Amino acid sequence: MMMSWAGCKSIALGGILKIQVMKRRGALRIFFRSPDNTFIQTIKFCLVGLLNTALTAAVIFAFIHIGTGIYLSNFIGYAVGIAFSFVINTIFTFLTSLSFHRLGKFLLTCLTSYLVNIGVI
């Protein structure tokens, strides 16, 4: 939706992103609005994902480097990554408490991902 007031043009996308263009200066300002912290959670989730990927890869390569087989190295790396991802995303990203119910659903998803990974290797 396009609206105009005080010499500005604004576009609001889905209630989360608002782009504002100033007519006089040609400046572009981007605002993020998230009443339920969806945007902040998305940023946290992406940051945890990047850190988790780096940690998992580092563990896998470290174990391969010390002579552990590729499958065992991959399994250990995944186990470390799964534990890290579950704990950090639960506590930091979603600000909830750890529970066995959440862990069960998370492990089922991770098992599926791991089986796809083994198939690719």
Q: Care to describe what's here?
A:
With 121 residues, this protein is of the alpha+beta class. 60% of the residues lie in helices and 17% in strands. The protein has a four-stranded antiparallel beta sheet with strand order 1-2-3-4, with no helix packed on it. Strand 1 (2-5) and strand 2 form a beta hairpin. Helix 1 (38-65) packs antiparallel against helix 2 and helix 2 runs antiparallel to helix 3. It is globular, with a radius of gyration of 21 Å.
Descriptive key words:
about 120 residues; alpha+beta; four-stranded antiparallel beta sheet; 3 helices; about 60% helix; about 15% strand; globular; disordered N terminus
If you compute it from the alpha carbons, what radius of gyration comes out, rounded to the nearest whole angstrom? Answer: 21 Å
What's the total number of strands? 4
Summed over residues and divided by their number, the pLDDT gives a mean of: 80
- Low-pLDDT stretches are 1-5, 28-32
Counting copies of identical and different chains, the oligomeric state is: single chain
Report how far apart the termini are. 48 Å
Number of helices: 3
What is the N-to-C succession of helices and strands? EEEEHHH
CA-based shape: globular
Q: Helicity, in percent?
A: 55-70%
Largest sheet: 4 strands, antiparallel
Strand order of the largest sheet: 1-2-3-4
**Structural class computed from helices and strand pairing:** alpha+beta
